[in-house]
Amino acid sequence: MGTQTSSEPVTDTPMGSQIRKHEGGDELPVPVPAVDPLATVAGMDVSSHQGNVDWQSWWNQGMRFAYVKATEGTGYENPYFAQQYNGSYNVGMIRGAYHFALPDRSSGAAQANYFVDNGGGWSKDGKTLPGALDMEYNPYGSTCYGKTKSQMTAWIKDFSDTYHSRTGRWPVIYTSTSWWNQCVDGDFSSTNPLWVARYASTVGQLPYNWGIWTIWQYTSSPIDKNTFNGAYDRLQALANG
């Protein structure tokens, strides 16, 4: 277990909130992703900030997959997780869970186990995506959580290896190119699918050594919206492993 280096209590940090804070974006109107709509799938992600979600409404607007925040650090669980995770599944979406990493609070293994134990697992039911690890700017302190690039790489590897040993899947890694290139020096491109955040009409440069993105979060207005890079059968393949 790592030492806790921030005394601030864990609240609930929504995915991408710190990237928007540090990198900007999301000026109206909402950018239209410059991708082929016939070879992509529309999706969304939610946290407790959305409360009880009207999943049928979002399904009717074309959303076909969803990621739901499960945990943050080793001390926060999303109180709306069941409504969001089960509700998206019940309306027909392929869904997964995500974990907001706090690498200065405890080890990668500890947070991966906490995530799996509190909703972040995986089952081969055709409707469940591998869990996602949200790596972004520290909402409670220094940008890179007081870690060197090599220490951060080791922390992510600890999380990723532990998640893989628990579930048989490599976690999707959510990040921004700017944060990753500041804080990480390792290469996860051969194992972990990339979920990149960039609030613009093009995805732009990818983080170190990833040659392709799997999911792109391109706006947070009026909700976090994502594009899956492939047709629906490829999304199903990601779910099935």
Automatic annotation (TrEMBL):
What the protein does?
This enzyme has both lysozyme (acetylmuramidase) and diacetylmuramidase activities.
User: Which keywords fit this entry according to its UniProt record?
Assistant: Antimicrobial, Bacteriolytic enzyme, Disulfide bond, Glycosidase, Hydrolase, Secreted
Q: Which GO terms describe its cellular component?
A: extracellular region
- Which range is the signal sequence, renumbered to this chain? none
State what protein this is by name. Lysozyme
Which PANTHER family does the record match to this protein? LYSOZYME
Q: Which domain of life is it from?
A: Bacteria
Give the family, as the similarity comment puts it.
Answer: Belongs to the glycosyl hydrolase 25 family.
A GO BP annotation: peptidoglycan catabolic process
Q: What is its EC number?
A: 3.2.1.17
Name the source organism. Saccharopolyspora hirsuta
Q: Name one GO molecular function term.
A: lysozyme activity
So what does this thing catalyse? Answer: Hydrolysis of (1->4)-beta-linkages between N-acetylmuramic acid and N-acetyl-D-glucosamine residues in a peptidoglycan and between N-acetyl-D-glucosamine residues in chitodextrins
Name where it mostly resides.
secreted
Q: Which SMART domains match?
A: Glyco_25
Enumerate the subcellular locations listed in this protein's record, separating them with semicolons. Answer: Secreted
Question: Which Pfam families does the annotation name?
Answer: Glyco_hydro_25
Annotated region (Disordered), positions in chain: 1-30
Top EC class of this enzyme: hydrolase
Q: Where is the composition biased (Polar residues)?
A: 1-16
